[in-house]
Amino acid sequence: MKHTITITGAGKGIGRAIALEFARAAKHHADFDPVLLLCSRTRSELKTLALECQAEGAKTDIITADLSKIDDVRQLTDHIINRYDGIDCLVNNAGIGRFKPLEELTEEDFDATMSINLKGTFFLTQALFASMQKRRSGHIFFITSVAAEKAFETSSIYSMSKFGQRGLVEALRLHARKCNVRITDVMPGAVVTPMWGEISDEMQAVMMRPEDIAIPVVQAYFQPARTTVEEIVLRPTGGDL
Ligand SMILES: NC(=O)c1ccc[n+]([C@@H]2O[C@H](COP(=O)([O-])OP(=O)(O)OC[C@H]3O[C@@H](n4cnc5c(N)ncnc54)[C@H](OP(=O)(O)O)[C@@H]3O)[C@@H](O)[C@H]2O)c1
Fold first, then answer.
1. Residue 212 CB: number of other CB atoms within 10 A?
2. What's the gap in Å between 14 CA and the centre of ligand 1?
3. CATH of 70-234, one of 3.40.50.261, 3.40.50.300, 3.40.50.1370, 3.40.50.720
4. Which of 18, 44, 61, 129 has the fewest CB within 10 Å, making it most exposed?
5. Which residue's C-alpha comes closest to atom 2 of ligand 1?
6. Is residue 84 within 8 Å of residue 67, measured between CB atoms?
7. Can you spell out the DSSP letters for the chain?
8. Is 160 near ligand 1, meaning CB less than 6 Å away?
9. Is 240 in the pocket of ligand 1 (CB under 6 A)?
10. What InterPro entries does the record point to (predicted)?
11. Residue 173, Cα to own-chain centre: how many angstroms?
12. CA geometry: angle at 148 spanning 137 and 92, to 5°?
């Protein structure tokens, strides 16, 4: 069966690993014929990823969009809704983090973070959820963070945005339960990705890898339709950094 899966922030890090894991699943699930809609701002990264996914047997569609811009969000949703009969899965993964002491955070840090982590995520979800609601099926993942329920000293703006995403998850769930749509909140701790910039070998040794997040996400998708994995919390074994 065809499964249309949109992954935002697919070009790097956790989103890239989720795309590859869905592509690999095509080999293990006889009835799973994925079409992966890969979205981010950097076309070259999406092109490389698309070839890797195709090599695993998945179909792909590359869509460049800046999800902090409402016009791009609308173009993306129009593309998905007009081109595909319906959307089976949305992985809300695109996001940024500006980690600085409280006094150094600027208005630009605030606006940049909120425009992608909250505004873009909200309007994309709103549009695609409406289509799932009509079909009475679908699955939306949010890659929030442990910072969605726990504060860290250098992550005040990031935490505000992630606590906000969690608010959306909880509100959306109330609607989703009435129309057979599954919502999964994925809360990872520290994962080695480009979001962190340069990371020392010592730090890397105690952090998770993107595939550690991707594997349980795809497993949650393959639960029977009657079952929703509502939350996935993943931490480095030694705890938060
Ligand atoms: N890494 C961690 O430790 C960690 C822990 C918990 C939660 N998370 C969350 O996991 C998600 C992915 O993080 P990551 O660590 O994988 O980050 P990453 O390596 O920096 O990748 C982020 C992805 O999002 C895309 N993106 C960023 N801004 C965008 C925009 N305005 N429009 C469209 N796409 C955009 C990036 O591509 P372009 O720049 O090409 O657009 C990239 O593909 C984020 O929501 C993050 O908050 C990460």
1. 16
2. 7
3. 3.40.50.720
4. 44
5. 191
6. no
7. -EEEEEEETTTSHHHHHHHHHHHHHHHH-TT-EEEEEEEES-HHHHHHHHHHHHHTT-EEEEEE--TTSHHHHHHHHHHHHHHSS---EEEE---------GGG--HHHHHHHHIIIIIIHHHHHHHHHHHHHHHT-EEEEEE--GGGTS--TT-HHHHHHHHHHHHHHHHHHHHHGGGTEEEEEEEE--B-SGGG-S--HHHHHTSB-HHHHHHHHHHHHTS-TT----EEEE--TT---
8. no
9. no
10. NAD(P)-bd_dom_sf, SDR_fam
11. 17
12. 35
Question: Measuring from atom 23 of ligand 1, which residue has the nearest CA?
Answer: 9
Distance 196 CA to ligand 1 centre (A): 10
- Domain ranges for the chain, please list them: 70-234
Ligand 1 touching residue 66 (CB < 6 A): yes
Q: Which residue has the tokens 């969605």?
A: 148
List the chain pLDDT tens, one digit each, 241 residues.
899 999 999 999 999 999 999 999 988 888 999 999 999 999 999 999 999 999 999 999 999 999 999 999 999 999 999 999 889 999 999 999 999 999 999 999 999 999 999 999 999 999 999 999 999 999 999 999 999 999 999 999 999 999 999 999 999 999 999 999 999 999 999 999 999 999 999 999 999 999 999 999 999 999 999 999 999 999 999 999 9
Q: The tokens of 132 are what?
A: 């799932």
Place of tokens 């195709």: 54
Q: Is the CB of 186 under 6 A from ligand 1?
A: no
